[in-house]
Amino acid sequence: MKEIEDLIKKAQRFLRTAEITLDDCDYDSCVSRCYYAMFFMAEAMLLSKGISASSHKGVISLFGKHFIKTNILKEELGKALRRAYDLRQKGDYATGFIVSDREAKKSLETAKRFVAEAEKYLKSQTE
C-alpha cells in the first residue's frame, strides 16, 4: 500500500534529520524528529490493519490496543512511544524546559529501535 510505504520513508527521513540535529546540538528538534519517526511508523502499522486515527493521542492509544496489549510488540515500545510524545510536547511547548544531550541521544537510540521493530513487523505482513 502506497500510503504505508510513504509513511515508512517519512519516518526514515525524520530519523536522518534527528541524527543531524543531534550533531548540531539542537536537542529539542532531535527529540521532536525522533517522536515523529515513531509516530509515522505507528500510523503505518495501524494502516496495515485498516485502522486510522485523527490525533496523536488516538494513534498512541490505538497502537497500544492493537500492538502492545495483543503482544504483537513488546510493552517497552508502547511506553517508548508515549515517552517520546511527552518529551516532544515538553521540548516544543514547555517554557524553560531544556532537552539534554543525554535525553536526545537516548531518544534517537529508542526511535531507531522502534522504527526497526515496526519495519520488521510490516515486512512480515507482506510475506
Brief rundown of the structure:
By secondary structure, the chain is an all-alpha fold.
Query: Which outline best applies?
Result: globular
Low-confidence stretches: none
Task: Please identify which CATH superfamily we are dealing with.
Answer: Nucleotidyltransferases  domain 2
Would you give the CATH topology?
Four Helix Bundle (Hemerythrin (Met), subunit A)
CATH architecture: Up-down Bundle
The count of DSSP E runs of length 2 or more, i.e. the number of strands, is 0
Spatial separation of the terminal alpha carbons: 14 Å
**Main sheet overview:** none
Overall pLDDT score:
95
Please tell me how large the radius of gyration is. Answer: 14 Å
Highest-level CATH class: Mainly Alpha
Q: How much helix, percentage-wise, in residues?
A: over 70%
N-to-C SSE string, H for helix and E for strand: HHHHH
Beta content: under 5%
Q: Please count the helical segments.
A: 5
Q: How many distinct domains? A: 1
Alpha-beta classification: mainly alpha
